[in-house]
TrEMBL record:
Keywords, sorted A to Z: Membrane, Transmembrane, Transmembrane helix
Protein name, entry field: ABC-2 type transport system permease protein
Record-annotated membrane-spanning stretches: 58-79, 85-107, 128-147, 167-190, 202-221, 263-283, 350-367, 379-398, 426-448, 492-511, 517-534
Domain of life, source organism: Bacteria
């Protein structure tokens, strides 16, 4: 792919010379950027094991999104609705995917200030640096847009003919220009109102949201069969359609395919012909210089110092919380360490927090499938157990695992206290709030009769997690490499617990829940057993801690 892009640039060498850009410097910078892009971890690849240096990661990411586009594009074939409605969904999906990829995946490159540090002190013109960055953006977004629209283009061509497919492709290109324009405005606003570190946090949250969308989107796409065969809806164009770009392009497709040339569709056509090119003009003449100026201000020592002063402040709330739930100094230290790192480590948050997105799907089912209400309640509660357990296993993994040498040189005579403090931190920070939120939702819909179910599920979760003390070896917090976490150790045994014990607890809950006082009676018993097992963590010695 890199060779192909460079071949195209060589053919356009005359254009860059006409723009007074040093082509040889430009080509060298672009080649390095594309090479780095193909080695950078993209999207959901962040959660995969990396045993060796990655290659062709960008192509793999494009392939994944192209497959997803074919799955989503099936609605063009099977949903029997007017072209306008179907196309509006298709363009909205493409626009969303491009925007969120640009925010969540490409932002770390877009806001990379290494160009300023490495190239500006050297005899390289600022125009060359910006042009190289612009070419990188065009290549990234062009390939990304094509991947996310490929399925829709194919199915549109198959259903409406090659002319409609070609028009759809042109519309996608114009939609991409609008998406770049809107995203650039968002970036500029962010660089003006937040610091570099805060901006990175926002990007991290966008990455989490994108991962959640992918996970939940698969589930909702699987339910699109309910739209197939429904009564055909009439097209009702509302005022807000004139403010939403996907509606404009859907109007163009409706006018071309269904031969509708009424006034609203003519307005949509004018918007499609004017707004993308106006956006391109504004980007080139106004946003690009502002954006380059904003980038030059990032990474300054002043911002870093402000961040250092802010993070140096001691958290009274955390001290009080750790004092309540821990007994020893070592346990308290581990509690606070895990609490702070899980809040600050962006890579940890991107890896761990998206798993909670699937709860959205289960809660949605609970409110839309009332005929299976009791089963849906158990699915929500015990999927929550599954999520908390998975999250608790993530605290042992870190990209900075080599720093764990500190555990060995520190005077730790009882590593079990570190494990117990870490586990308590996750239960208090993640387990308790998520059960409070889920409990409030269930009580809000079904009433206070759900309290015994919620308490039983919380006790079952605590018991399930405390059963880990019966397994063989343990790892200290953030001491395990990602690759080792999935190919070594006793993970198979822990997953055996997951797939055997969790369903057993679920079945017990289901049948005892049909009795009058079964859950109320059994809940304290499970809680006592769980607390006794947690105490066993303190007895874990160095002989059970693996390197």
């Amino acid at each position: 792919m890199t060779k192909f892009i460079l071949y195209i640039l060589d053919k356009l060498q005359w254009l860059f010379k006409w723009l007074a850009v040093d082509y040889h410097s430009l080509r060298a910078i672009v080649e390095v950027k594309l090479m780095m892009e193909n080695r950078r971890v993209h999207g959901l690849q962040r959660n995969q094991v990396q045993k060796k240096e990655q290659s062709n990661t960008f192509l793999k990411s494009l392939l994944f999104q192209a497959i997803f586009s074919f799955i989503y594009g099936l609605m063009i074939l099977f949903i029997k609705q007017p072209v306008y409605l179907v196309m509006m969904l298709s363009f909205a999906f493409i626009m969303f995917m491009v925007a969120f990829n640009m925010i969540s995946d490409f932002a770390e490159v877009l806001f990379d200030t290494s160009d300023n540090v490495i190239l500006l002190p050297r005899p390289v013109e600022g125009k060359v640096i910006w042009m190289a960055r612009l070419i990188h953006i065009i290549v990234f977004l062009g390939a990304l847009t094509l991947a996310n629209s490929l399925g829709s283009i194919v199915f549109t061509t198959f259903k409406f003919g090659w002319q409609a497919g070609l028009l759809f492709f042109i519309c996608v290109i114009l939609l991409c220009l609008i998406t770049i324009f809107l995203t650039s405005i968002l970036y500029l606003l962010l660089t003006k109102v937040v610091s570099e570190e805060k901006l990175k946090d926002i990007i991290g949250y966008a990455q989490i949201a994108f991962s959640v969308f992918i996970a939940v989107g698969y589930q909702f796409i699987a339910r699109t069969d309910k739209l197939i065969g429904t009564e055909t809806q009439e097209i009702v164009i509302k005022w807000w359609h004139y403010l939403v770009p996907p509606a404009w392009f859907a109007g163009v497709m409706e006018a071309f395919v269904a031969k509708h040339f009424e006034l609203p569709y003519m307005i949509f056509t004018l918007l499609v012909l004017i707004v993308p090119f106006a956006s391109l003009y504004i980007i080139n003449n106004y946003l690009s210089p502002l954006f380059a100026k904003s980038l030059s201000g990032l990474g300054t020592p002043e911002i870093t110092e402000k961040r250092a002063v802010k993070t140096a402040k001691k958290s009274t709330f955390l001290n009080v919380l750790s004092g309540i739930f821990t007994k020893t100094t070592l346990e308290k230290s581990a509690f606070e360490l895990v609490w702070i790192i899980t809040a600050r480590d962006r890579k940890f948050k991107v890896r761990a927090y998206p798993i909670f997105g699937m709860l959205i799907y289960f809660i949605y089912n609970y409110f839309t499938q009332s005929q299976k209400e009791d089963v849906n309640v158990l699915m929500i509660l015990y999927y929550t157990m599954f999520l908390i357990w998975i999250f608790s296993q993530q605290i042992y993994i870190s990209d900075d695992w080599k720093a764990s040498w500190a555990y060995r040189v520190a005077p730790l005579t009882n590593p079990g206290e570190v494990l117990l403090g870490s586990l308590k931190s996750i239960l208090v920070k993640v387990g308790l709030p998520i059960f409070i939120i889920i409990g409030a939702i269930l009580i809000g819909k079904a009433g206070f009769g759900m309290i015994d179910d919620i308490l039983f599920a919380m006790s079952s979760t605590l018991l399930f997690i405390s059963l880990n003390v019966l397994t063989g070896e343990f790892s200290l917090p953030f001491s395990m490499e990602m690759a080792n976490a999935k190919v070594k150790g006793n993970q198979w045994l822990k997953f055996l617990f997951l797939f055997l014990v969790a369903p057993i607890l679920g079945f017990v809950h289901y049948f005892i829940g049909k009795t009058t006082y079964g859950l109320i009676t059994l809940t304290p018993i499970l809680l006592i057993i769980a607390l006794l097992l947690l105490k066993e963590y303190r007895k874990i010695g160095w002989d059970r801690i693996k390197e």
